[in-house]
Structure formats: structure tokens, C-alpha cells
């Protein structure tokens, strides 16, 4: 999510080859990915189902390899400082370092992932489900238009290959912004229907926003200032005040409710067209626990990603 990012930037947007960046080349900005046959999988290339992900930083697995309360090291502090700073200039580098697609529910091949849930309905392995992730830090509903354009560019070399599954999980950054739920409703439904207009035969999997208003009740005092983050002390509240202060507003719960109602209504409108749609409504009822949060007290840890994957997986029908 990380609402402070002014412009959505992609971290190693996953091609269907599931390219991931290593620490050895962390100073390089990766080239745009190309559609390619994965190196792993038993299904014939022409038969491989394709999953496309429209999402924000939650879908990139940002900080999923950390957990609330663990000790900050200098590098994590510096990168978080960049992400939370309005004047940050090296956002691509920070995004590349902090994302964990191998842990994100939307892209992992682990049993809790969406690929595993889809594979189970087709008697395949998770690795046999190809994925193009358009997820990016700071993404809002309005950014689906740019994501759709990027998808078209990525699929162009594949000579007509189309997605069989489209996963959409957006709205967290809209919640964190000054945008009204009414504005979100209009933009979200317009963009979802625009994707459907182009890909009417895809199987849509839609998730609402997790109940992030619950986070206000979960706190942790990290103690003295951390290099890169400044201030005299650091706590979950101080981190969230910089990334999503809306969590602490009196109307936070109502704001989430209205945003998720808009997601639900857009899902109903999509279903009314005859599209095949699964709605992961359990996500909005998630009783978030401290151990399911990353070190920034906001994004999901691996356990949090596992919870999301299980909620979404249970919604996917044959």
C-alpha cells in the first residue's frame, strides 16, 4: 500500500516466467519483463493457465519476510525511510529490495497461494499456473488503467495469449488517501468493467480491502530512533502515522465499510454481465493478529500472506 508513494512503481513485475531479483544485482533496475514459458511445470505451454494480478504493495509481498517486533537493521530502516519520505527518489530500488513475490499470496507457489488454489481445481501443480503480476507500490483503483495497458504490452509478443484468471485486490491506498469512498466507487467500477470489456471470458477473483482499521489496536514500541527513520523513538503508531494516518481517524471503520461495499457492488455488477466471478469476502472479516504483520506494523508478514491466501483460496470455485 504505502500511500506516501506519489507514483506507482513496479518492482520486477513478474512475467509468467516468475523472474525474481537477487541481492547480487540489487543496484540494477530490471528491464520490463517479457511473457515467456516458465522453467517449471508439467503442462504443455499452450495449455498453461495464466493468472493476472491487479494489486498494490500487499500483492508484492512487501516486507513479508519480516515480522512485527523484530530488530531493525540499518538497511531496513533506510529503505523504510525512503518509502515513507515524500522526497524519496530511489523508490524503484526500495521496492525491489522490500518485495517478496515468493511469499505473496498472489504469486507464491506455496500451498497457501492463489496459484495452488487454482491448480487444485484443474489437477495441476501450482508451478503450472503462469502469472503476470501488475501489482505495484502505492497503486489505487485509478491505476488499473495503466496496469491494463502494461498487460497488453506484456501479452503482445505471446500472439494472442489471454488470461484465464484475473485477481483484483485494490482499495487499501484509496482508504489511506483523502479520496472519498464515493470517488473510489466510481473509479473502481469503471476500471473493473474496462478490464472485463477486454477480457470477458476470464475467471475473475476479487478481494475486498482487509480491515486495516483494526491495526490501531495493535502497537509495539521499537525503542530509540532507528537509522534512516529519524525521530526520537519508533513505534507502530509512529510508522503508521507516516504511511496511513487514516487508520487513526474516528471514521476509519466506516470508511473501510464503504470502500468494501463499493468493491462488493462492483463484483455484483460484473457477475450480472455473465462473467465468472468469485468474491473473497472473508478478507474483509479477517481478525488481524500481531504475528500476521510485518516489521512496519502495516503490511502482512508471511503468516498474514498465508491468511489472505487461505481466504481467497476458499472462494475459488471449480
Can you give a write-up of this model?
With 318 residues, this protein is of the alpha/beta class. The chain has one domain: SGNH hydrolase (Rossmann fold, 3-Layer(aba) Sandwich), CATH 3.40.50. The chain has 9 helices and 9 strands. A 5-stranded parallel sheet has the order 3-2-5-6-9, covered by helices on one side. A two-stranded antiparallel ribbon has the order 1-4. A two-stranded antiparallel sheet has the order 7-8. Strand 7 (221-226) and strand 8 (230-235) form a beta hairpin. Helix 3 runs parallel beside helix 9 (302-315) and helix 6 (181-198) packs parallel to helix 8 (252-272). The longest helix is centred in the C-terminal third of the chain and has 21 residues, at 252-272. The protein is globular and about 55 Å long. The two termini are 31 Å apart.
What is this entry, summarized?
With 318 residues, the chain is α/β, with parallel strands linked by helices.
Features:
five-stranded parallel β-sheet; alpha/beta; disordered N terminus; two-stranded antiparallel sheet; single chain; 9 helices; Rossmann fold; 318 residues
Radius of gyration: 19 Å
What would the principal axes of the Cα set say about the shape? globular
* Terminal residue distance: 31 Å
Q: What is the chain-wise order of helices and strands?
A: EEHHHEEHEHHEEEHHEH
Strand content: 5-15%
Q: Which fold name is given in CATH as the topology?
A: Rossmann fold
CATH top level label: Alpha Beta
Number of helices: 9
So, the CATH homologous superfamily?
Answer: SGNH hydrolase
Mean pLDDT: 83
- How much helical structure, as a percent, in the residues? 25-40%
Question: Count of DSSP E strands?
Answer: 9
Amino acid at each position: 500500500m504505502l500511500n506516501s508513494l506519489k507514483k506507482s512503481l513496479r518492482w520486477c513485475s513478474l512475467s509468467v516466467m516468475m523472474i525474481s531479483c537477487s541481492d547480487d544485482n540489487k543496484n540494477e533496475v530490471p528491464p520490463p519483463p517479457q511473457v515467456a514459458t516458465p522453467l517449471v511445470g508439467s503442462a504443455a505451454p499452450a495449455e498453461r493457465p495464466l493468472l493476472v494480478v491487479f494489486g498494490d504493495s500487499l500483492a508484492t509481498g512487501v516486507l513479508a519476510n519480516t515480522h512485527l517486533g523484530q530488530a531493525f537493521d540499518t538497511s531496513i530502516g533506510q529503505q523504510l525511510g525512503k518509502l515513507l519520505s515524500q522526497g524519496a527518489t530511489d523508490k524503484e530500488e526500495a521496492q525491489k529490495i522490500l518485495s517478496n513475490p515468493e511469499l505473496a499470496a498472489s504469486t507464491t507457489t506455496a500451498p497457501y497461494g492463489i496459484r495452488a488454489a487454482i491448480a487444485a481445481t484443474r489437477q495441476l501443480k501450482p508451478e503450472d499456473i503462469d502469472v503476470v503480476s501488475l501489482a505495484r507500490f502505492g497503486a489505487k483503483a485509478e491505476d488499473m488503467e495503466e496496469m491494463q495497458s502494461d498487460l497488453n504490452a506484456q501479452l503482445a509478443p505471446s500472439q494472442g495469449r489471454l488470461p484465464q484468471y484475473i485477481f483484483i485486490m485494490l482499495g487499501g491506498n484509496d482508504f489511506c488517501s483523502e479520496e472519498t469512498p464515493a470517488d473510489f466507487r466510481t473509479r473502481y467500477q469503471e476500471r473493473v468493467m474496462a478490464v472485463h470489456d477486454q477480457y470477458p471470458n476470464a475467471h475473475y477473483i476479487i478481494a475486498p480491502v482487509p480491515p486495516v482499521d483494526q491495526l490501531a489496536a495493535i502497537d509495539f514500541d521499537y525503542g530509540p530512533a532507528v537509522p534512516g527513520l529519524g525521530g526520537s523513538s519508533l513505534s507502530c503508531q509512529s510508522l503508521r502515522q507516516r504511511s496511513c494516518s487514516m487508520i487513526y481517524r474516528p471514521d476509519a471503520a466506516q470508511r473501510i465499510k464503504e470502500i468494501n461495499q463499493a468493491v462488493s457492488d462492483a463484483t455484483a455488477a460484473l457477475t450480472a454481465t455473465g462473467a465468472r466471478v468469485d468474491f473473497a469476502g472473508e478478507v474483509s472479516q479477517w481478525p488481524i493478529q500481531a504475528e500476521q504483520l510485518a516489521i512496519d506494523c502495516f503490511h502482512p508478514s508471511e503468516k498474514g500472506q498465508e491468511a489472505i491466501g487461505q481466504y481467497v483460496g476458499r472462494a475459488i470455485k471449480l
